[in-house]
């Protein structure tokens, strides 16, 4: 039996994918979103979003993500919980292998965001591996824990503020001495007594401890020190998540994009400009292009 042909397949229900689906629904163009995790995407990790217009006092990333999802659900946007493991183009339509089975679509929208750069400078223990993370959304119920964060950019400081607010004690480790985050995040972290910051400090070894803890062996100009933590979080930067795009599709993607059959939207394509409003704007623009394109082709 042949799988039905979806009009539009959207991979990822972060701000970009949700915005595209909402606008397509307004045009009456059926779209299927496939999301492998909790809808809302990376935004669910943001402590306080202060640059998304409409929220004069800022809004937590979790709440903004929930509102976006609610808006999509209110107009019956179709979201399937599954991971796309391979996306290919067979010359006439897209073919997606997913954990929910095979999908086919006329138009594909890749809104898959980014994936974290993993720790590579030291071996990670197999035991207590669930205590080593690259995002903090899953820690929303964790309180009174010792947490080490490696990194010195916006995400590292945003994670630190987020976790310290919930009475966790956070140690930020920067192997250099350059602070790469927004000045206001640095200033806020300095006012938060539960955040400690160390520069020129590098993890050399991580050992699993009983009681789900980790022992970090750190090297700094003062010598070797040991830090026992409940969680270790890497905030080492992120790269576009496109590992499911087949080689065949990658070779043809520029032509398919130019013809309006394929769209890359949001963080997956935005390099330095990874922001929620930009991702949502990308989603809207892609939906408008799809509407124009299908109207001309199907006329
Ligand atoms: C700590 C932190 C703080 C931030 N603060 C702000 C802020 O204050 N203001 C701001 O504007 N932005 C902020 N951001 C950035 C913002 O979160 C992103 O720009 C935004 O989430 C990008 O949206 P997106 O839809 O492009 O990608 P994402 O939000 O990453 O969504 C991509 C979705 O695709 C899914 N996916 C990926 N691959 C597959 C697959 N193969 N199959 C199915 N699903 C898949 C993922 O699970 C994910 O849900 C912050 C980010 C972080 C980490």
Can you give me a brief rundown of this structure?
The chain is α/β, with parallel strands linked by helices.
Beta-strand share of residues: 25-35%
* C-alpha-based Rg, rounded: 21 Å
Bound compounds:
flavin-adenine dinucleotide
What's the total count of β strands? 17
- Provide the CATH architecture of the largest domain: 3-Layer(bba) Sandwich
Find the structural class using helix and strand composition: alpha/beta
Here the CATH topology of the largest domain equals FAD/NAD(P)-binding domain
Written account of the structure:
The protein is of the alpha/beta class and 299 residues long. The protein has 2 domains: 5-115 and 238-298, FAD/NAD(P)-binding domain; 118-234, FAD/NAD(P)-binding domain. The chain is 28% helix and 29% strand. The protein contains 6 helices and 17 strands. The strands form 4 sheets. Strands 1, 2, 3, 4, 5, 6 and 17 form a 7-stranded mixed β-sheet that branches. It has a 5-stranded parallel β-sheet with strand order 8-15-9-10-11, with helices on one face. A hairpin with a 4-residue loop joins strand 4 and strand 5. Helix 1 (15-27) packs parallel to helix 2 (61-74). It is elongated and about 70 Å long. The relative contact order is 0.19.
